[in-house]
Specification:
Number of strands: 4
Bound molecules: flavin mononucleotide
Protein name: Nitroreductase family protein
CATH class of one domain: Alpha Beta
Structural class: alpha+beta
CATH topology of one domain: NADH Oxidase
Strand order of the largest sheet: 1-2-4-3
Keywords: Flavoprotein, FMN, NADP, Oxidoreductase
Largest sheet: 4 strands, antiparallel
Family: Belongs to the flavin oxidoreductase frp family.
InterPro entries: Flavin_OxRdtase_Frp, Nitroreductase, Nitroreductase-like
Mean pLDDT: 95
Shape: globular
Length: about 250
């Protein structure tokens, strides 16, 4: 546990994903506070281009568990599906003027804006949850079968599932995963292509020690080994681009 000068930094610096939860649901009050935190995040052009689906139906949680291969979904205190959403604004605009041309909402620009909105809202929610003594994990593994997610949650044109977020009362206390030294990722005024491989080796050793010493599923692993392993993983999920186009995005 790192002790810091204020509670926000304390929460941020002590982040780690939590994948095991006590058998205890979040209250409506907690859920509404979490949504408020998510909604107060910055939002591209003040257009609030995201939606959040609370997944409470056990059959739908099972679909997510099957798609993601994570059973933890069913044990979480609450599960949120975050959706990039230009559909709602399209509806609102058509309500105001039934002849309005909403072509612009199909652009790459608007897709990126809605994904930015999701990511910022979701991270705010996760940090808020952690500040409340909860823990959680972001889940990109919904992309294993994005069509199934779109169908299950009846996602209309101009929406796209971006990430899941499982939250709950922690039933584990994992170590904090070390991050790469900021010298490697922070540059001044221009991109620095010269990687300090000595620093990288130090970081690899840190990650190796983290995996070797951690209480749950200790293993032989380093950052560079992980990168190489991930690169060679196959098959890469291929359904994402066609699904984005089917949902009406990336028209130009
Ligand atoms: C976009 C995104 C998708 C992720 N998807 C998954 C996932 O599907 N399953 C999972 O267990 N963790 C997932 N994670 C969590 C990362 O594995 C985790 O943040 C990373 O290993 C660092 O560990 P930490 O969060 O404990 O510091 C995801 C994180 C992000 C940002």
């Amino acid at each position: 546990m790192i002790v810091l000068e204020n509670q926000v930094l304390d929460t941020l610096f002590n982040h780690r994903s939590i994948r095991n939860y006590q058998d205890k649901k979040l209250t409506n009050h907690q859920i509404s506070q979490l949504l408020q935190a998510a909604q107060q995040a910055s939002t591209s052009q003040f257009e609030q281009q995201f939606s959040v689906i609370s997944v409470t139906d056990p059959a739908k949680l099972q679909v997510i568990a099957d798609v993601t291969t994570y059973d933890l979904v069913k044990n979480a205190g609450h599960y949120f599906l975050f959706v990039a959403d230009q559909h709602r604004n399209s509806q609102i605009l058509k309500h105001i003027d039934s002849n309005v041309d909403t072509t612009n909402l199909h652009s790459t620009d608007k897709l990126l804006a809605s994904i930015h909105d999701v990511d910022l809202a979701l991270q705010s929610m996760l940090t808020a949850a952690e500040s409340m003594g909860l823990g959680g994990v972001i889940m990109g593994s919904i992309y294993n079968d994005v069509d199934k997610i779109i169908d299950t949650f009846k996602l209309p044109e101009l929406t796209f599932p971006v990430l899941g977020l499982a939250l709950g009362y922690p039933d584990e206390n994992p170590e904090i995963k070390p991050r790469i030294t900021s010298e490697i990722i922070h540059y001044e005024n221009e991109y620095n292509d010269q990687i300090d491989y000595n620093e990288l080796t130090n970081y690899d050793n840190q990650v190796h020690a983290y995996y070797a010493n951690r209480k749950h599923s200790a293993r032989e692993e380093s950052f560079t080994h992980h990168l190489m392993h991930d690169l060679k993983q196959s098959p890469v999920r291929k359904g994402i681009l066609p699904a984005l186009k089917r949902q009406g995005f990336l028209k130009f």
